[in-house]
Amino acid sequence: MNMDVAKTLRKVGFEKKLVEEIVQLGRLKKVKAQSTVISPGTKNDEIPIVLSGLLMVMTKDENGNELFLYNLEGGQTCAMSITCCLEGKKNAFYVMVEEDSVLWMVPMAYMDSWIQKYFSFRKFVFSSYQARFDELLAAVDSMAFMKMDERLYKYLLDKKQATGSYVIAKTHQQIANELNTSRVVISRLLKQLEREEKIEQKRNRIEIL
Predict the structure, then answer these.
(1) Residues whose CB falls within 8 Å of the CB of residue 165, separated by 6 or more in sequence, listed in order
(2) What pTM was estimated for this model as a whole?
(3) What is the phi-psi region of residue 154: left when phi exceeds 0, alpha when psi lies from -120 to 50, beta otherwise?
(4) What is the second-level CATH architecture of the domain 146-208?
(5) CB burial class (10 A; 0-12, 13-18, 19+) of residue 179?
(6) Which of 22, 82, 98, 80 shows the shortest CA–CA distance to 46?
(7) Can you give the chain as a three-state secondary structure string?
(8) pLDDT of 124-151, one tens digit each?
(9) Main-chain phi, psi angles of 48, to 5 degrees
């Protein structure tokens, strides 16, 4: 397994010495779909690097309404968790497991020294911030300027790209929760997309055509 971890870290672009340190100091964590990796109101002393699988970063308002922010795939980490860890803040978001995933948990105690010592790690952190910022901006743009049917179809296409599969294993209610709307609206719009021959619906599954 350490060889697989090292291979993933080398693909990210880390120096050999940094890869050795991360492998030595980190730990493996396997998580099942629908479980929670990071919860709101908690503090973390580790950050996850995704080796395989798919995670979802979500936020929730005081009324319990959920909103999908962005996905985390292989070789990526959560920039928001880095910020919270470095500043000692409690998390204002949560990370759900979209599909069974394998993570490498890295101790926050070494973040500062790695940022100073290794150019590749500084680049990794800043690139993570930039990528997450771009995705958050796209999410804000879609909510502000796109109609719900456009948001829904974009959501499905984004899921296809993230998972590499044309089949989205989601219920109407799960999609509604992530897009912060009602199940009735999602069901109606999915039927519309089906009539337009953009998707085909099956039980708890949506296939993009």
Answers:
(1) none
(2) 0.68
(3) alpha
(4) Orthogonal Bundle (1.10)
(5) buried
(6) 82
(7) CHHHHHHHHHHHCCCHHHHHHHHHHCEEEEECCCCEEECCCCCCCEEEEEEEEEEEEEEECCCCCEEEEEEECCCCECHHHHHHHHHCCCCCCEEEEEEEEEEEEEEHHHHHHHHHHCHHHHHHHHHHHHHHHHHHHHHHHHHHHCCHHHHHHHHHHHHHHHHCCCEECCCHHHHHHHHCCCHHHHHHHHHHHHHCCCEEEECCEEEEC
(8) 888 888 887 787 777 776 666 668 888 8
(9) -90, 135
Alpha-carbon distance values, 24 to 28, 74, 176 (Å): 11, 20, 42
- Which residues, in sequence order, are CB contacts of 45 under 8 Å at separation 6+? 85, 107, 108, 109
Q: Which two tokens stand for residue 21?
A: 């340190």
The b/e string for 125-164 (b: 16+ C-beta within 10 A; e otherwise) is: beebeeebeebeeebeebeeeeeeeebbbebbebbbebbe
Q: Which two tokens stand for residue 124?
A: 């990794």
Task: Give the distance, in angstroms, between the CA of residue 87 and the centroid of all CA atoms in the same chain.
Answer: 21
Phi, psi (degrees; rounded to nearest 5) at 128: -65, -45
Amino acid code (one letter) for 128: S
Confidence band, pLDDT 50/70/90 cuts, at residue 17: very high
**Residue 75 near residue 54, CB atoms below 8 Å:** no
Architecture in CATH for domain 2-143 = Sandwich (2.60)
